[in-house]
Amino acid sequence: MMELFLTVFSAAFFVTVIRTTTPLLLATLGGLIADLGGALNVALEGMMLIGCLTAVIVSVYAPWYVAVAAGLGAGALLGLIMAFFAFRLKADIILVGFAINIFAAGGTVFALALATGGDKGTSINLPSKAIPAVDLSVLSNIPVVGPTLTAFLSGHSVLSWFAAFLVFAVWYFLYRTPWGLWLRGVGEYPAAPEAAGIPVNKIRTWSLVVSGALAGLGGAQLAMFNYVGFTREMTAGRGFIALGAVLLGARHPVGALLAALLFGAFEALAVVMPGLFNEIPAEIIRMIPFVVTIAALVLFSVRAQRALAMRGAK
Amino acid sequence: MSNIPAIDRASRWKTIRRETLRALAALAIALLVTFIVVLFTSKAPFEAFTQLLTAPVSRVRTVGLWIDDVVKLTITGLAFSLVFQARQFSMGVQGQVYIGALAATYVALSPLGATWAGIPLGITAAMLAGAVYGFLPGIAKAKLGANEIVSSLMLNYIAIELCNFLVRTNLPKPQAGVLTTNDFPDSAVFPALVANTRIDLGLIFALVAVVVVWFALYRTSWGLKLRLVGHNARFAEYSGIKATFIMVSAMTASGALGGLLGSMFVQGQTYGKLTVLFEGGLAFEGILVAIVARSRPLAVPVVALFYGYLRQGAQLMNIRTDVPAEVIGVVTAIIILLVSSSFSFGFIKKLFNRDPARVSAPVAAGGAAK
Predict the structure, then answer these.
(1) CATH code reported for the domain at B9-369
(2) Which of A149, A167, A308, B95 has the maximum number of C-beta atoms within 10 A of its C-beta?
(3) Which residues in B lie closer than 8 A to residue A304 (C-beta atoms)?
(4) Chain-chain contact of B363 with A290 (C-beta, under 8 angstroms)
(5) Which residues of B touch A290 (CB under 8 A)?
(6) How far apart are the C-alpha atoms of A5 and A177, rounded to whole Å?
């Protein structure tokens, strides 16, 4: 137990938490934008997965930033497809989302087999690139706190810093710009913005495009930093966990950050635990993020319901 | 999901004809897209496509594989139909399959499995376990307001890991290191209905399940309430129906079907033992079956017949040509997208008719069509 304690409070563990949180946070912010626009984006999982594969394949032929942009673009395109079917063709958005998930689960394996010449498991024989880590070792020149700062802040992915910035950007967008107000209005009560002449469907479409782009970006981080290369079904439910994080995060960017950090921390725990306790079976450790998601969802829902009851809304 | 009781027979037939045409059109478009994909990626595209379309009927054995898929798709399609009719998006069939399979395995490998009770007890245990697993997200939603989509998906992953864990550590294995249990005793394996094929007792169970689900939905007050809740939960609540009870019971019943499917997997001729990840993503394909069948239990086996054919065709194409079977995911997604949307023959025309003044017109039309 002591070892676990020491591990959890080490700088290395902090770096692991940031690493596991980043894809989740990006997807959660994506889910948040869609959710505020009134659409539960259940396709986050599929969008991430396709983002992963696109980024990996593009990175074989292009620099890493092009690959990241490709992952982002693939997610955005899926968001657009989702919007087209959900808003223009009036399909149920949850069914559309699952269609995209099914497409992603099959399509990525199909494309992987084509790209690798028959390997349906991993992209191990593709020389894919990684997202560079930001080296802040200059900070160690600062007296006293320098080495500690370096240990905590150095070595994160570029996208981790970007994701942290995005939390602020999304907050600013939602609460300090007219478009953010429109988006929230559309999600809250579409008839009112419609009457005010705000293009409701256009806003919803954009919210799904941005949502997909962020999920695709999360996929790029997952396949180009957390792991380098693609493995079939490598998202392993992260998109669904992100969906839980949106609900848990009280539909606010800061809440999304905290929820993503919570799930990221438990995922990081699942990463470090096998090295510490080899008597705990790997399957049980792998269950942790899912169990925590359910527990968090249930606990939060209880609180939300109580708050609702206290306000007399029910 | 249109399930308004048809007033007269003529309009019912009209609906069936329209839905069938739509489904076939969606199938044609999906196959066309697949053909284009295969054309660009395969060295022998025509051979691959011929395999996709003809392989399932090429031998007696492959017909058996096809029917086996149809039987399983029917059950998962029914499970999704039940929750979709109540407008619950519980996605937990996959988890229920694993939990049900585990329960059936424990019965089959116990001393009881070697007696006549192996099959009935195995199925009962599987259905009970599945029902409990379906009940959990239901009660979490009804009592705590936890979103059923997320919780049921999380339960899927947990069930898969639990199955992996128990197979690896707890259940008896032929040798250390393999991720499969001992073969079940013969008394716990469904007898084959047609010798040397995978067509087994599961076929009978699937047919019974279709009739039972149809009867429950369309000939009992529970089914009427369930469909009312699905149409408009608040209206149902106002008219004195306990909407939350109906939701939870629909998810529980659907869970029992998922559990049954689990026992059909492991106790069927296909396996006769529990292997990790035995389900191979089939459970989720029930979404397609349920959507194309418009959640009508009697239409489910028909859709399963078509879709199972394609699914098996893709598997055989994978073995016999250079096109991976996963291409079927593309077909599935396109069919779901087209069938669940207001896509129709006039849709192409509407698509190019992007007059901004008329943008809101399809909204009204779509609303009315529901």
Answers:
(1) 1.10.3470
(2) B95
(3) 145
(4) no
(5) 154-155, 157-158, 161
(6) 44
Phi and psi (nearest 5°) for B279? -80, -30
Answer whether residue A276 shows pLDDT above 80: no
Task: Give the pLDDT score at B357.
Answer: 43
Task: Return the H-helix or E-strand segment holding B131.
Answer: helix B118-144
pLDDT of residue B366: 37
Measure the CA–CA gap between B316 and B49, rounded to whole angstroms: 11
- Which of B255, B199, B193 minimizes the C-alpha distance to B71? B199
Select the residue from B162, B341, B344, B359 to test the A interface by mutation, using most A Cβ atoms within 10 A. Answer: B341
Start-to-end CA span in chain A (Å): 45
How distant, in Å, are the alpha carbons of A14, A143, A144, A149, B202 from that of A139?
A: 17, 9, 11, 7, 67
**Domain definitions of chain A by residue range:** 2-310
Q: What is the mean pLDDT of residues A279-283?
A: 80
Q: Which of B151, B164, B341 sits opposite A294 (nearest CB)?
A: B151
CATH no. for A2-310: 1.10.3470
Side chain identity at B161, as an amino acid letter?
E
Q: Mean pLDDT for chain A?
A: 85
Number of residues written out for chain A = 314
B336/A89 touch (CB, cutoff 8 Å), yes or no: no
Query: What's the rounded mean pLDDT across residues A104-110?
Result: 89
Domain positions in chain B: 9-369
Residue A147 has pLDDT above 90, yes or no: no
Chain-centroid distance of CA B362 in Å reads 31
Alpha-carbon gap: B158 to the closest alpha carbon of chain A (Å): 6
What is the helix (H) or strand (E) element at residue A80, kind and residue range? helix A64-83
Q: What do you get for the CA distance between the two ends of chain B, in Å?
A: 7
Low-confidence ranges of chain B (pLDDT < 70): 1-8, 342-370
Cα–Cα distance, A78 to B307 (Å, whole number): 25
**Residue B44 backbone class (left: φ over 0; alpha: ψ -120 to 50; beta: rest):** beta
Calculate the CA B58 to chain-centre distance.
Answer: 25
Rounded Cα gap, residues B255 and B156, in angstroms: 12
What is the distance between the alpha carbons of residues A189 and A42, in angstroms, rounded to a whole number?
Answer: 21
A26 contacts: CB under 8 Å, gap ≥ 6: A159, A163, A166, A214, A215, A217, A218, A221
How many angstroms separate the CA of residue A276 from the nearest CA in chain B? 19
Q: Which amino acid is at B83?
A: V
- Chain B CB contacts of A247 under 8 Å are 147, 150
Do the chains contact at B326 and A106, CB–CB below 8 Å?
A: yes
State ipTM.
0.87
Q: In this predicted structure, what is the pLDDT of residue B369?
A: 36
- Measured on CA atoms in the order B212, B213, B216, B217, is the torsion positive or negative? negative
Angle of helix B93-108 versus helix B243-267 axis, rounded to 10:
50
What pLDDT was estimated at residue B2? 47
8 Å CB contact of A89 and B162: no
Residue B356: predicted pLDDT:
44
- Three-state SS at B293: coil
Helix (H, G, I), strand (E, B) or coil at A228: strand
DSSP code at position B86: T
Say if CB A296 and CB A28 are below 8 A apart: no
**Token digits of residue B168:** 């690896």
Radius of gyration of chain B (CA): 22
